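Reply to dn_fold:

You asked what the input looked like. This is it:
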Amino acid sequence: MTATVAALANASRVVALTRISSRHPNLAAIADATLAFAKHAKVSERIEVTNRIDSRRWQDVDLVTYCLQVGPISRSLIELLPSHAVVSLMAEPWELRPDVVDFDACDEAGIKVAAPNLSHPAIDLLPEFARLCCILLDEAGVDQRTARIAIVCDTPCAPPLEHRLRESGARVGVFSHPVLLTDDAWDVIVVAMRPSDKPPMDINSLGRIARNSRQALLVQFSGGIDRSAASYFGLRVWPPKRPTRGQLALPLDVLGPGPLVRRLTGGLKAGEAAYRGAELGGNSVGFLVKAGFPTAGRERA
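and this is what came back:
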């Protein structure tokens, strides 16, 4: 989809770099699906699908998009890019693992890193994340009309998620870290944290939850939970299968193509704006990201 969107925005050439994985084991099938969509949009002649790019061809690249399915943007790749190139994260930094882009290499090469502003009216994804989390709660069998729900969240998703759950009738408490969780007997504890090498929902936090809310269901929407510790304390966790690190428990396309298209288009637009030297930050469609995210955050105009 991203390749077709870029071509529709009049990119002169688009290279869709993929890799073989357990989910997509057949490169030919990936290429066929990508090009079939591009043919429908009448832009397939400008799109190439490959699993490798010769090092010399990176010198012609203006915009590189980060995609979880392909892997991190490393120093070795960045050193192949021209200095005017821009890396587009296609997500806000708080959504991503700390190691997705070698920011030091970008700084040394003078390469900008851009991210979409998910709160921008043209993208507006935060309410969609809240809707997705509520679907996860439904799948877990939670009756949101009567439940006492604690939201442990250190991302911008907290306000829209709280609003949606309150509208459903739930009694809600919001906490930015597990150590701030009150000793109430919660029915459900929603974990909606940013990715971290050492998830805050660790054995100490889970031991405290077990003492005060042993019957609570832990719902892992984003971020990590020490599932071994949860099992040790007899705590229930949903979903049963651990989400892939750095990804939501449910993919965004559960909500249909609209939110995903807005994310991808917003990411490309933020990258293009950075490439053209447009003013970013504030209420614009995107912002520049520096080393040290998520604590460094956005570079505001």
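Residues 2-121+254-299 form a domain with the Rossmann fold fold (CATH 3.40.50.720).
Hope that clears it up.
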